[in-house]
Structure formats: structure tokens, C-alpha cells
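Hi F.,

I've been meaning to write this up properly since the lab meeting, where we talked about keeping a consistent format for the predictions we share between groups. The idea is simple: the sequence comes first, exactly as it goes in, then the C-alpha cells exactly as they come out, then a line or two of notes. No screenshots and no reformatting. I'm using this chain as the first example so we have something concrete to point to.
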Amino acid sequence: MGTVLVIAASDGKNLVLAKKWVEVGTESGYTMDILELCADELPLYTPRRDDEGSPVLLQVIEQRMAAADAWVICAPEYNGSIPPTLNNTIAWLSTKGEDFRGLFNGRPVGLSTHSGGGGQGVIAAMRMQFSYLGSNVVGRSVISNKTKEANPDAMRFILEQLSKLS
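Output, unedited:
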């Protein structure tokens, strides 16, 4: 498999989790890269901003996502669902991306979270959204919190599944 892009939807514990994915993946022979959605400020998607055109940063995000063979999403749970940074990025891509359907259709996706809550809500919400967008979501996920570290064996299994799907 080529590159696995780990998409960090926060700059806190989920960025730490993303770095753990890179460590485990690299040790297992995968080419890993991180996309930090909080590193640059993608403006909030609104219909008015949609009329103003595409933010320059969106093209960079889209190119990095398109260049990867598979994605691993690291996202915190926000009120039982997807965090605003991830939702906002998907909203922009769906309206201003060059080939939105091509970007998501058939894309192998792994899901993970470091959550203060149970984490099941964000995993279920991401599974539903990425499946709806046409991605091939791996059945197993990684959930960690302050008392439960991310399981490297689960990470390796998910990476192996992603490589079979790509």
C-alpha cells in the first residue's frame, strides 16, 4: 500500500493519537502522513462564504487527501457526534472540491478517537457519514481515553485491512 493519511480533527489528545498511528504504522512498514485540520484555519462553511468561492487552504487539504491511498480519522467526540473541524472540512469539500465523489468513493477509511466520553457516539457518526459518502470503512475501530491507551495491535489490524481495501 502507498500512503496512509492520518487526519487529526483536533490539536489535543487526538493529535497525540494521530502521532501514535504514524509511529505504529511506520514501524509496520507503512508510509504515514498527518493532516492536522486545526493547524490552519479553514473558515466556517456558510452559504455566503460558498458564494465567495473556495478558500485556498481547501485545495491543499483536498490534494493531500486525494494523494493518499487510505485515511485514518482521529476525532474527538463532540456532544455524541463529529467535531466541528471535521464536519466543516467535509462541508467545504462537498461544495467546492474538484471531485468530491471521486475523493470519497471507495476510499478505505479507519476510525479512531481519544474521547473524554465513551467515544462510541463519534465512531458511529463517522461510520455513518463516511459510509454515506461512499468510503469503505473498516469494521474495527480504536477508542482510547484517559484510562485506556490506544491498542497498537488494533491499529496494526486496521492498517492491514486498509491495505487490503486499497
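Notes:
The chain is about 45% helix and 20% strand.
The first strand starts at residue 3 and ends at 8.

If this format works for you, I'll send the rest the same way.

G.
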